[in-house]
Amino acid sequence: MVRALAERGQIRSFPKNTVIINEGDRGDSMYIIIAGRVKVFVSDDQGREMVLDDHGAGDYVGEMALDGRPRSASVMTMEPTTCSIVTRDALRAAVAGNPDFALGLIATLIDRARIATDNVKNLALMDVYGRVARLLLSMAREVDGKLVVQERLTQQDIADRVGASRDMISRIFKDLTIGGYVTVVDRQITFNRRPPQRW
Q1: Partners of 148 in the beta sheet?
Q2: Are the C-beta atoms of residues 149 and 140 closer than 8 Å to each other?
Q3: pLDDT of amino acid 63
Q4: Which of 75, 170, 178, 189 could form a disulfide with 21 if both were Cys (CB 3.0 to 4.6 A apart)?
Q5: Please, which residues have CB within 8 angstroms of residue 67's CB and are 6 or more apart in sequence?
Q6: Could you read off the pLDDT of 91-143 as tens digits, one per residue?
Q7: Domain boundary among 124, 152, 168
Q8: What predicted TM-score, i.e. pTM, was given to this entire model?
Q9: Do 45 and 102 contact (CB within 8 A), yes or no?
């Protein structure tokens, strides 16, 4: 159904690092990602950011445009990205005319609400080290018997995702490396052994 909805939209391509949705703007459309990758983030007046999530082909962002209220987050391309931009009227028609699509949209909103709840819980109850360890372990996949984070993250990328400074992330990685828990080669993080839950 998402593919059928994408056919009703206007196709646009965006270069890497283009903000396609601005937090606070009035929203009147949803963006279905056809190719590429985007990050969803919030920021403050000082320009500090926190990344809430990232999405790739087949996903969509801006679905909260249904209520007509200001955007709750910004969306930026992480690589050249092509989207189908679907108006609120077309989205409403799809929801009204197709119960399966409506249920799928509700399921996605519930999943994203659960992620947001987990993020708030972690920010409130976990220290920075715990948030870093949890993020990296959640992203790691087994490769040749070892857990590897295949996305090549910078320390600033990690800081933006866990709500910390880059300096703090640098100190944590120094401790993890000296302790023999991780090896970082060309920004690829490999776990040599599982890090402790608390530092």
Answers
A1: 141, 190
A2: yes
A3: 86
A4: 75
A5: none
A6: 888 888 888 888 988 898 899 888 888 877 767 667 899 899 989 998 999 98
A7: 124
A8: 0.71
A9: no
- Of the candidates 49, 44, 46, the one whose C-alpha atom is nearest the C-alpha of residue 166 is 49
Q: Do the beta carbons of residue 191 and residue 176 sit within 8 Å?
A: no
Q: What is the CA angle 80-131-70, rounded to 5?
A: 50
Can you give the CATH number for the domain in which 145 is found? 1.10.10.10
**In Å, how far from its chain's centre is CA 136?**
14
Buried b (16+ CB within 10 A) or exposed e, 172-191: bbeebeeeebbeeeeeebbb
E-strand stretches of the chain: 10-14, 19-21, 29-35, 37-43, 49-56, 60-61, 74-77, 81-87, 141-143, 146-149, 182-185, 188-191
Are residues 112 and 176 both part of a single domain? no
